[in-house]
Design goal:
Blueprint lengths: L10 H29 L3 H23 L9 H33 L4 E3 L6 E3 H26 L5 H9 L1
Antiparallel strand pairs: 1-2
Helix pairs in contact: 1-2, 1-4, 2-3, 3-4
Keywords: Membrane, Transmembrane, Transmembrane helix
Membrane topology: Multi-pass membrane protein
Subcellular location: Membrane
């Protein structure tokens, strides 16, 4: 019989990861907006840079607070595996953000919310499709980090031997 914490979807790990992912999501939304404004890039072009900015925050918080990995003494190994999983999930985020956004724009124009007492308008269509992409990314990240990144699988050692 397995321990309760070894289950893939145990409540403690899922709640901790959800709170950490929420922090990363806020970082990603703010970074994406700033990247679009400061560098005058498109919505599609802002998603991955914002995702990778939030990835740094995500790794630190996940290492410290999720999956009981704080004392693992395998930070370098976990960083490599985290980057591999996050790169895949970055594509998931981009795909499930951009494809629905483009589909919506086929039938309707963007919906904006003007921040009171400000000149800033928030593109709610982009925010909602980004949150959609983040939801799919959350699922892939959680499962892969729980079962691969923060679990000793022997993969890192085989990968390290391969590149030597």
């Amino acid at each position: 019989m397995s321990k309760p914490n070894s289950k893939l979807f145990n409540k403690k790990d899922l709640l901790a990861y959800f709170l950490i992912a929420g922090t990363g999501a806020l970082v990603q939304l703010v970074a994406g907006g700033l990247i679009k404004d400061w560098f005058e890039v498109t919505y599609e072009e802002s998603i991955l840079p914002a995702y990778y900015i939030s990835l740094v925050v995500g790794f630190i918080l996940t290492k410290l607070f999720a999956f009981n990995a704080r004392q693992s003494q395998q930070t370098r190994r976990e960083m490599v595996k985290f980057l591999m999983v996050a790169s895949f999930s970055g594509f998931v985020t981009w795909f499930f953000s951009v494809i629905p956004y483009r589909a919506i724009n086929q039938f309707a124009s963007d919906f904006y919310w003007h921040i009171p007492y400000s000149v800033k308008k928030i593109n709610l269509t982009q925010v909602l499709t980004t949150i959609n992409g983040m939801g799919f990314s959350f699922l892939s990240n959680y499962v892969l980090h729980k079962s691969f990144t923060f679990k000793s699988s022997g993969f890192y050692d085989r990968f390290k031997d391969l590149i030597r």
